[in-house]
Amino acid sequence: MKNFGLKKHMLSFTEWEKEFQNFQKASNTKIIGKNVILLPEIPSTNIYLKEHNELKHGTVVTAYEQLKGKGQKDRKWISKPGGLYLSIKLDILSTKNFSPFWITATVAIGFCKALNQIQLQPTIKWPNDLLLNGKKVAGILTETIMTNNSITAIIGIGLNVNNDLNEIITLFPDLQSKVTTLQHELQQSDLLHFSNILVSALEYIESTILTINFPDIDAIKNEWLEYADIEAKKVTIEKIDSHEIITGIVTKITDAGSLLIKTDLGKVEEFTSGEIKFIK
Length: 280
Ligand code: BTN
What we know:
This protein is α+β, with helices and mostly antiparallel strands. It contains 7 helices and 12 strands.
């Protein structure tokens, strides 16, 4: 195994492993995280789960470092030691044809609630980002394989915990003032230990997703809106492919997880993806 050395912005590999042991000791989950696979470095935890079909429902795969971390829309996810990179495999029994958006939304709510417990006030930026003070601290990438009566979901979460912000900004100057870490937002010089965040988030995710009536869209939508606070807000939305920018008021988030926006021209348009910004 590679010797990662010790920097101020990362737990040592052994300390990082200990966080997952502490999580397993403290967690009341019955399925998620009963099996945790800890790896020093791999391309991507989502890819690992897709390539290891034999791994069972509830398995968590985590890497100290990802060499090819994947973000939404084929973007890269910077995955140096210091962050939390994990994927969860869930077989969701469902004959209903629901949108995987509600899986992502539930995971986002779970992590928001966990961050509330350490006195942070995250917001959700549609569709899948967690922000602190307007800067991205986490992203979620849910990939699904659907059959007739079940969905296998591979849910990847990247959370900036102790990452070295200066290093990120030096490597990617465009991210200046767009990205943050938990350590930075808590203004703490000590390294942050994350087992309690995992316990809280994964317990919420299990108790919501692995229930017979999942997804209770109205209930999840209400919680999601408390963190996203987007309805009736004036926004611009940049279309991913054409980069066209539309201005309007968000009238609704639909049951499919798309946004309805009443544009300045008075027309209601539906968006399934896009880069959104609030206008005062
Ligand atoms: C995004 O905001 O674009 C989603 C980022 C998702 C990153 C996580 S890190 C763990 C898992 N493995 C990956 O390669 N991606 C997800």
